[in-house]
Amino acid sequence: MASGTAHQHIRLAELLAALSHALDMTEGQPVGHCVRACWIGLNVGKKMGLTQGQLSDLYYTILLKDLGCSSNAARICAHYITCDLTFKNEFKKVDGSLPQVLNFVITQSGVKANMADKFRSIVKTLRHGGQISKELIETRCQRGAEIARQMHFNDAVQQGIMSLDEHWDGTGQPDRLQGLEIPLYSQIALLGQVADVFFMNDGREQAITAVGSRAGTWFNPKVVEAFLTLEKDEHFWTMLSRADLSKHIYEFEPGQSARIADEDYLDDIAQAFAQVVDSKSPFTAGHSERVTLFADLIAEQMGYAEERRRWLRRAALLHDIGKLGVSNSVLDKPGRLDDNEFAEIKKHPVFSKEILDNICAFGDIAPVAGGHHERLDGKGYPYGLKGDEIDMDTRIVTVADIFDALTADRPYRAAMPVEKALGIMREMVDEAIDRNCFTALCAAIAKFDQLPTLDNHAGELKVAV
C-alpha cells in the first residue's frame, strides 16, 4: 500500500476528467459520456469564437454538468418504481413530443412493480408529471451548482450547471428560461450531452439529426449551426470515437496555463465527490463524512502521523464512490435483498476501485475503497481477501464503515444505540474485523463527553476485546 506521500503537479483537468467516470455511472451513461460531451462542446465553442477564458469555463461546466445527478435518484425510484440508472439513460433520448413522452412514461414506470402499482404510477405521472419533473431537475441542478461552488468554480460555471436543462423555446426546466436568458455554457453543454447520447446509441448521422431537429426548440440555432459545421470534420469524429479519449481530454484544457490541484484542493475535491455519493440515498446522507470521522479517530488512537491520517481521510471520503453505479431500487430496498440484488450491491467496491485506479491523485487509495467489505476470515467481498491480505488502512475504514452502518438509519431497520452496535461488533472481532482497530474505536468513542454512558463502560469495552 502506498504511504500517502504528497502529490505534486496534479492537473485539475486530468483529475476531473477521470472523476467524471463516476458521474457517467450514476446517469446510466456509457463510460466517457461527460468527456465526449466536453469534446463536442469545446469544438462548438471554438467554432463560435469563444475566448480562451470562456472555453476554460465551458470545459469545466461540461465535465461537471452532472455533479447533482445523484440527488434525485431516490425519488425517481420511489415515484416511477423503476431503476434510476435505466430511467435516466432512456430519458435523455426523449425529445419532448407527446408521443415520445407517453411512450417513455408507459415503458419506464413500474418496471419493478406489479401491474396495479405500475398503473397507479403511470396515472400519477400523467396527472402531475410536469411538477414532478420540475422538482427532480431543480434538485439536480441546484445541488450540482452548490457542489461546483464548494469546489471553488466561478459563478459562470455554477450557472452553466444550474441551467443545463433549460430549452431555447422556454419549455425546459427548472426556471423555463428562454433564448438568451439561458447561459451560453448551458446551451452548449446540453447540445454536447444530446449529441453524445445519440452518437453512442445510434451513430454519427443520428447525432447530427437529433441536434439539427432541435434547433429553435431545445437549442439556440446559432449553436446548432456551429455544431453542424463539424459534420464533415473526420478528426473530430475520430477523436469522439476513441475509447481512451478520457485519458487525453485534459490535453485540450483551454487557457494559458493548466490549473494545478494542490493538497488542500485534493481534500476539497474528495469531500465534494463524497457529497455526490451521499446524495444518492436518504439513508446514506452524511455517511462518507461520518466514516471519515470515525476512521480518523481510530487512526489517531493508533498513532498515525497527520500526513498519513490526511491520506486516510481521503480514502474514507471516497470509499463508496462506486455506489453511484448501483440503482437506488437496490440501495433503498426496505426488505431483504434477493441473490441478484445482493450481487449488484457487491459490485460497488469493484466500481470504487475501478474509478479511483484511473486517477493518479487517488490511485493509491483505490485498494482501500475496493477492500472495505472484506473480512479477516475470507468471507467478505468482492475478492474474498483474508488475514494479512487486508492492510491496516483498509481494516480501519472497514471498522468505521460498519460502526456507521449500525448506528445510522437503514431502509430495513432503525439506527442502533451505540452500545448495541459495539456489542455486535465485539462478536465480529478476529473473524470479520481487526481487534486493534475495534479497540481504538472504543477508546476514541469513550472520550466523548456527550456520551457519558460510554465513559462508564470504557474499561469494560477494552477488556472485552
TrEMBL record:
Pfam families: HD_5. GO terms for molecular function: cyclic-nucleotide phosphodiesterase activity. It comes from the Bacteria. Residues 262-457 form the HD-GYP domain. GO terms for biological process: cyclic nucleotide catabolic process. Keywords: Hydrolase. SUPFAM superfamilies: HD-domain/PDEase-like. InterPro entries: Cyclic_di-GMP/3'3'-cGAMP_PDE, HD/PDEase_dom, HD_GYP_dom. The keyword Secreted does not apply. The keyword Hydrolase applies. This is HD-GYP domain-containing protein (C-di-GMP phosphodiesterase class II). It comes from Maritalea mobilis.
